[in-house]
Amino acid sequence: MEIFQLLMPIFTEYGYIAVFVMLLVCGFGVPVPEDVTLVTGGVIAGLGYANPHTMFAVGMAGVLVGDGLIFLLGRFYGERIARLPWFSRILTEERFAKAQNAFQRYGRWVMFVSRFLPGLRTPMFFSAGMSQRVSVATWFVMDGFAALISVPIWVYLGYFGAQNWEWMFGILRQFQHGIFVLLALGGLYLLWRWWKSKKV
User: Fold this and answer.
1) 11 to each of 91, 183, 195, 200, how far by Cα in Å?
2) CA angle centred on 97, ends 94 and 99, rounded to 5°
3) Would the pLDDT of 163 be above 90?
């Protein structure tokens, strides 16, 4: 709620550009929730400061460009960037180790799942780029497919909840909890598949 109240006047004043820039910042692992950013963009559209469909397009662009920059930086400058002090604070050794482990175990589908996990998204895409085993086309398909699910949900939730913030934030929390439950179930299924393959 505090972040939402902080973003509202900025987005109202600067519109699409502010939303796009904030999504780029989110892509680099800065602790600003992407879902709240998109919902806030939807709210200003619901209040008449923007067009909701244009906001959806801007949201998609901001998400994909932000994620793409992380992936390409990992692909071309991964080793050098990983040693930088300021970057190592965002991409900690623990996060990077988890990302590498998940990527090696489950492959490209981890990129789809990590789109919904803010804490792992940046290290996962950076790790995928560093691995040199994922093509740009593969990354784009997996990330784009996941974004087509998440971005419209948040933008249009904000749009339709612009006049009723209490209802909107209640739905937002339900979506967040539901996503984590689905991801947990998916993780258990993948773990079971991996364990079963080891027994064969």
Assistant:
1) 28, 31, 47, 55
2) 110
3) no
